[in-house]
C-alpha cells in the first residue's frame, strides 16, 4: 500500500492496518501464537501467496514476529505493538456487529470460515467426557464435508474422514449456524424450524445445543441507533 503522504496518526496507522485482509489476519493472531496453515484456515479466501505478502509488511513494521515451534517449524505471534491493536480490532468488530451483521448476503456465508468459528466457539466445559465426532453437511455445498473431533482436551477440525466413528451428523444451512454463532438465532429454534437437522444418538442430539457458544460481541452493550449530540 502506497503512503498517504500525511503525518496524521490516522493516516500512519491506516497505512499498516487498513490493507485488505490485514484486519482479519490480526484478528486471528489475537487468539495467540499461530501456524501459517491455521492462520490461512481462519482467513480461507485469501490465497497463500497473498497471505505471505500481507505478513511481510506486518513483520517489517514490528507488528508480528516469527518464533520457533519445533524443528523446521515457525509460528507467528503479535509483538507488543501488535497486541496494542487489539482494542482497534474489537472496536471494528463491535461496530460491525451492531450495524452490519443482521442481514448477511451469500457472499458472507463461507462454510470453511463457519466451521473454523464453530471450532473456536465451542464450550469446552460442556463437552462429554468421551470423544465425540460430529460430521457437518451444508445445503447448497454438496462438495463440502467437515468433521469436528470433540474432546475436552482439545478440538480438531478435519476436512477428511478422521477415521473415527461418527457420533452425530449435522445437516443444515450455513446461514442458520452463522446466525447461531452471532447470537442472532437460537440453535433449538433452527432445529425446530428445520434449518438444522441432527442425526445420531439421543444423548448427543440433546447435548449439541449446549456445546455451541456465541461470539463475544454478542455480550457487549448494544449501541443505540441514534446518538444525541
Give me some keywords for this one:
alpha+beta; 229 residues; three-stranded antiparallel sheet; five-stranded mixed sheet; Nonspecific Lipid-transfer Protein, Chain A; Arc Repressor Mutant, subunit A; disordered C terminus; 10 helices; globular; 2 domains
CATH superfamily of the largest domain: SCP2 sterol-binding domain
What is the 3D form? globular
How many domains comprise the coordinates? Answer: 2
Distance N terminus to C terminus? 36 Å
Helix content: 40-55%
CATH architecture of the largest domain: 2-Layer Sandwich
Describe this structure in words.
- This protein is α+β, with helices and mostly antiparallel strands.
- It folds into two domains: 92 residues, Winged helix-like DNA-binding domain superfamily/Winged helix DNA-binding domain (Arc Repressor Mutant, subunit A); 111 residues, 2-Layer Sandwich (Nonspecific Lipid-transfer Protein, Chain A).
- It is built from ten helices and eight strands.
- The protein has a five-stranded mixed β-sheet with strand order 6-5-4-7-8.
- Strand 4 and strand 5 form a beta hairpin.
- Helix 7 packs parallel to helix 8.
Ordered list of secondary-structure elements with their pairings:
Layout: H1 9-17, H2 22-29, E1 34-35, H3 36-42, H4 48-60, E2 64-68, E3 74-78, H5 80-83, H6 86-100, H7 111-121, E4 132-138, E5 141-151, E6 154-158, E7 168-172, H8 174-182, H9 187-192, E8 196-200, H10 202-211
Parallel strand pairs: 4-7
Antiparallel strand pairs: 1-3, 2-3, 4-5, 5-6, 7-8
